[in-house]
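Worked example 3 (structure in, sequence out).
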């Protein structure tokens, strides 16, 4: 996405953030602490307001911007039809207040503090450290922090996080899918690992090791880490290239570093197959500039239809999504990041919950949030669904392993 588009979307977000919200008359109050559970901050008889803190600037601005655009697209289309009919019989329009945290935990916490007394729930924000930054405060304030874009399993543990629920598969879910695919190949493989030195990277590696457990044909020959604040991983890639491993498992969340990793490996004439997380596997934003076709295979996982894939060019879900994204999300390009699709699905899932709510309270919202089962949200791949009923799992826990084909991804059943 170019700079002009980023500035235009950021301006649109600022306008949305300026919308004033009144409190419902049924026991509502302006409570700067966010209101008690069952309170009615951010909801009236005619509107419900959702808060988002996500990176709209910095190296993760591309996917962060998508988290706002996708949910704006879904609810913009719903609002144009009159709004969402809740289970209490009221029809409400959904408003979005989005603030930029630049993937900085301190900014995310500050954004939450600004929003908590004005919104009904926090949702869709991207990032593990940023979502973690206000998780405990949200629990204390009893403000829902739900369907957020982090694969950290703590957000899906009801005991640890009673006011939270993750949306995307956990890092362990994704890593395990990679490991199982490789183990099932029946061929000998050596694996080099580069992971982010935090819960994000550790979760992926844990899942991968779980997937290859007991498989005598797969051996991890070297493991290295990097910090999310690093500006280069050339040294790590050089060390890993020295192993001559035929598979590279790259548990990385930073877009520029993912591109640089692919480029550095080619400079060193090291061309293994690559496993990339769903977060950093965009064909347009990462694989094309990284010249990923130079490798024998680049694999990722997905649960969403990719609009840039020829396989979905005529798909009705995709056509509706792209139209809504342009008209209501202020996003005219075919998205380079999956987060646009994920947050559109988040909107559809929230819609399901709103339809079930018989009381305009956070307590009823959280109760109904955990009852969504086998929901095929728009854009979901066959074999995946939304299920919020399993404690310890996010709303989406099923994934399909896919292989890059030069333009998009195609689902695969075997490695090679």
């Amino acid at each position: 996405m170019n700079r002009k588009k980023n500035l235009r979307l950021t301006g649109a977000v600022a306008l949305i953030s300026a919308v004033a919200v009144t409190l419902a008359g049924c026991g509502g109050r302006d409570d700067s602490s966010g209101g008690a559970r069952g309170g009615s901050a951010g909801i009236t008889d005619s509107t419900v307001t959702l808060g988002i803190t996500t990176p709209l600037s910095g190296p993760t601005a591309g996917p962060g911007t998508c988290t706002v655009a996708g949910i704006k697209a879904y609810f913009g289309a719903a609002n144009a039809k009159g709004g969402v009919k809740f289970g209490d019989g009221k029809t409400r329009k959904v408003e979005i207040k989005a603030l930029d945290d630049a993937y900085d935990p301190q900014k995310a916490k500050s954004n939450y503090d600004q929003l908590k007394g004005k919104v009904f729930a926090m949702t869709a924000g991207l990032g593990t450290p940023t979502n973690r930054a206000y998780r405990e405060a949200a629990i204390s304030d009893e403000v829902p922090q739900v369907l957020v874009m982090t694969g950290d399993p703590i957000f899906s543990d009801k005991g640890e996080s009673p006011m939270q629920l993750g949306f995307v598969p956990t890092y362990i879910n994704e890593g395990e899918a990679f490991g199982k695919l490789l183990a099932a190949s029946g061929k000998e493989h050596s694996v080099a690992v580069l992971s982010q030195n935090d819960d994000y990277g550790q979760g992926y590696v844990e899942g991968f090791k779980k997937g290859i457990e007991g498989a005598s044909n797969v051996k991890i020959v070297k493991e290295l880490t990097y910090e999310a604040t690093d500006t280069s991983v050339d040294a790590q890639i050089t060390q890993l290239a020295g192993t001559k491993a035929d598979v590279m498992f790259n548990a990385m969340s930073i877009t520029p570093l993912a591109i640089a990793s692919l480029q550095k490996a080619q400079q060193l004439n090291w061309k293994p197959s690559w496993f990339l997380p769903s977060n950093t596997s965009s064909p347009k934003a990462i694989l094309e500039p990284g010249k990923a076709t130079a490798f024998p295979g680049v694999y990722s996982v997905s649960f969403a239809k990719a609009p840039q894939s020829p396989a979905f060019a005529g798909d009705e879900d995709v056509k509706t999504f792209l139209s809504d994204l342009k008209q209501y999300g202020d996003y005219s390009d075919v998205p380079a990041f999956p987060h646009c699709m994920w947050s559109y699905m988040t909107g559809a899932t929230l819609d399901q919950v709103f339809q079930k709510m018989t009381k305009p309270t956070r307590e009823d919202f959280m109760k109904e949030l955990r009852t969504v089962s086998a929901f095929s949200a728009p854009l979901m791949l066959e074999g995946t669904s939304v299920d919020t009923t399993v404690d310890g799992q996010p709303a989406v826990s099923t994934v399909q392993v896919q292989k890059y084909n030069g333009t998009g991804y195609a689902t695969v059943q075997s490695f090679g």
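Notes: Residues 1-38 have pLDDT under 50 and may be disordered. The chain has two domains: 3-169+314-399, 171-302.
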